[in-house]
Amino acid sequence: MTTATTLARIPRPVLVLPASLAALALLASGAACSGDAGGDGGGRLRTAGAGGIAGPAEPVATADSADADAVDTQDLPDALTGQSLDWSACHVLDSRQGDDETSPEPLPDDGDDNDGSANGDGNGNGSADRDDGGTPWECARLTVPLDYADPRGDTIEIALIRAPARERGEERVGSLLFNFGGPGGSGVAALPAFAGDYEELHEHYDLVSFDPRGVGASQGVVCLDDRELDAYFAADPVPATSAERAKLTDRLQGFADACSDRAGALLPHLTTANTARDMDLLRHVLGDDELHYFGVSYGTQLGGVYAHLFPQRVGRAVLDAVVDPTLTPEESARGQAAGFQQALAAYVEACAADDDTGDGNAGGGAGCPLGDTEKQANQRLNDLLDDLREDPMPTRDPDGRRLTRSLAVSGIAQALYSQDFWSFLTQGLDDALPAEGQDPDGTVLLALGDALNGRNPDGTYTTLQSSLTAISCADSRQRYDVADVRAALDSFRAASPVFGESLAWGMLNCAYWPVRGTDRQPPVAADGAPPILLVGTTGDPATPYAGTRRMREALGDDVGVVLTYEGEGHGAYTGGNACVRDTIDAYLVDGHVPRDGKVCDD
Disulfide engineering: 264 pairs with which of 57, 240, 415, 575, CB 3.0-4.6 Å? Predict the structure, then answer.
């Protein structure tokens, strides 16, 4: 596992072929928007007038604070608040967003009253021409200030995507803005990949998403080239000797230096608070009085920060797979270690049950590769990881890469995000732990690890992990050193014998970052906001359920309303539970706020 920060839930796979796994992960599918056909879509820094920002920032800069002296949306220059979005057909993905080589398929219409000729005004009050093929995806770019304390200075462009609502007039509620997590996930890539799960919402909302600042086609952070990233992610993150610790810190220092050299002027401004301000400017430009919002995983933190900054502009908001806003990075990482260990135990139990019945979603039935108990699973996995540390496993990767300990841990963690990927985990472990006389094969686990790291099947990388580091380090002022990690190792091992050490050493990710964070955690107190629906899953590995209750407390009295899903997986709405889906739909479509504490079971 390369970070201790949560990622969005990955979509359900539809093919069993190992080569398809990375392409089916959340951030390796979808379609992209660019400013024009053939453009780079990069959202370059620019200034009103001539010129731009010269050179990287100083070696140590300070990130913009959530409560900094920022200019409110209504007081921004007319050139920003009065801009009109030029919605047009979407183009194929930029490799920084994902790997799909086609534009997104139109969302199918379902026999409604659409006459096939609705026209749009470019600001959410209509759509591009439709035909019998359904609702086409539209893309545009929003210009935002680089620094909200200096709104007449440099600007960047934010890549957008939308599918206009099927219903018009009174049946249309407005725009529903999505963030699927990360931080670092491309919403332009993710929304088309998930859109089939939001058919009911599409009846009444324009479905809208975006690449947040520093992500994908919105000035996405690129620190290393693709081959350098291959080496970076393959390197062992768990040092056993002083020499190995020196190699680890040198590697992290080199990564931070490369980010400073290539994106230094941008890094201080890649905070969650600034992304929330971008969202409010987008709300205004779309013509909505309130922001209707659906945030998943890190998107829940982003939604909480938006509510803190703009409580009177919150519309209907759903936060699914809720990040705990009270924890330090160390506490969050340790909680995530325990969460993944819990998910591993659930997988082993399901696999053993499948072995007994020959049916189930863990792919058992011919003998579970990790045994029948969590203790057996821990031992077999740690034996495998120790072997990979000394002798990386051959794969069928076209670039000749081998499965290392680091990539295997990433692959196992990726599969534990969703029950729908458990069968792939079984397949990957069967290949890596074959019967006597058969050669081990790390191809499936490598493909899963690539998906977590944002590696496309063609060997290019999205900005997922670089953006994740940049945003996380700008948001938090906490910096850990080797002594801090060594002091915490026993508690991490107790939380998870399999994932604990990797997540503990991940605490160093911001140690050498060239930007000082300014907040302990981004604030989310939102006194005066309307009810916000918080959806927590009891078996969530990445955002443990306790965070849902703590977010409710942090938002303030009478703001958070908790919906509990007693099940497995990271994110409840797309998990297939009818109770969860119907409750959220009723809230978003009809404004029906459920009883605080409502429970849906698996």
Answer: 57
380, part of any domain: no
Q: Is 386 a catalytic residue?
A: no
On whether the CB atoms of residues 210 and 160 are closer than 8 A, the answer is: yes
Q: What are phi and psi of 555, to 5 degrees?
A: -65, -30
Q: Are 560 and 308 in contact (CB under 8 A)?
A: no
| Domains held by the chain: number | 2
Residues 536-587: pLDDT tens digits?
999 999 899 999 999 999 999 999 999 999 999 999 999 899 999 999 999 9
Does the active-site annotation cover 472?
A: no
Instruction: Give the integer Cα–Cα distance in Å for 546 and 535.
Output: 11
Q: Report whether 534 contacts 560 (CB < 8 A).
A: yes
CA atoms 403, 409, 414, 420: torsion sign: positive
The whole-number mean pLDDT for each consecutive block of 10 residues of the chain, a chain of 602 residues, reads 34 29 31 33 41 38 75 94 96 80 72 39 43 81 96 97 90 96 93 92 97 97 97 96 96 96 95 97 98 97 97 98 95 94 94 66 67 94 96 96 97 93 95 93 97 93 95 94 97 97 96 90 93 96 94 97 95 94 98 98 86
Structural domain including 217 reads: 1-63+80-302+311-332+392-413+430-530
**Exposure b/e, 256-273, CB count within 10 A at least 16 = b:** bbbbbebbbbbbbbbbbb
Nearest to 165 by CA among 114, 121, 105: 114
Question: Is residue 506 a part of any domain in this protein?
Answer: yes
DSSP assignment string, 238-250: S--SHHHHHHHHH
Of 180, 176, 167, give the one whose Cα is nearest residue 291. 176
Catalytic residue among 34, 297, 410, 418: 297
- Identify the sign of the CA torsion 250, 252, 256, 262: positive
Q: The tokens of 469 are what?
A: 């580091």
Residues 81 and 332: their CA atoms lie apart, in Å, by 37
Claim to verify: residue 517 and residue 540 sit in the same structural domain: no
The closest of 179, 446, 220, 177 to 315, measured between CA atoms, is 177
Determine the pLDDT at residue 388. Answer: 97
Q: 97 with 189: CB under 8 angstroms?
A: yes
Which SS3 state, helix, strand or coil, does residue 32 take?
strand
176/317 same-domain check: yes
CA 40 to chain centre: 23
SS (H, E, C) 42-96: CCCCEECCCCCCCCCCCCCEECCCCCCCCCCHHHCCHHHHCCCCCCEECECCCCC
pLDDT at 36: 33
Please indicate whether residue 570 is annotated as part of the active site: yes
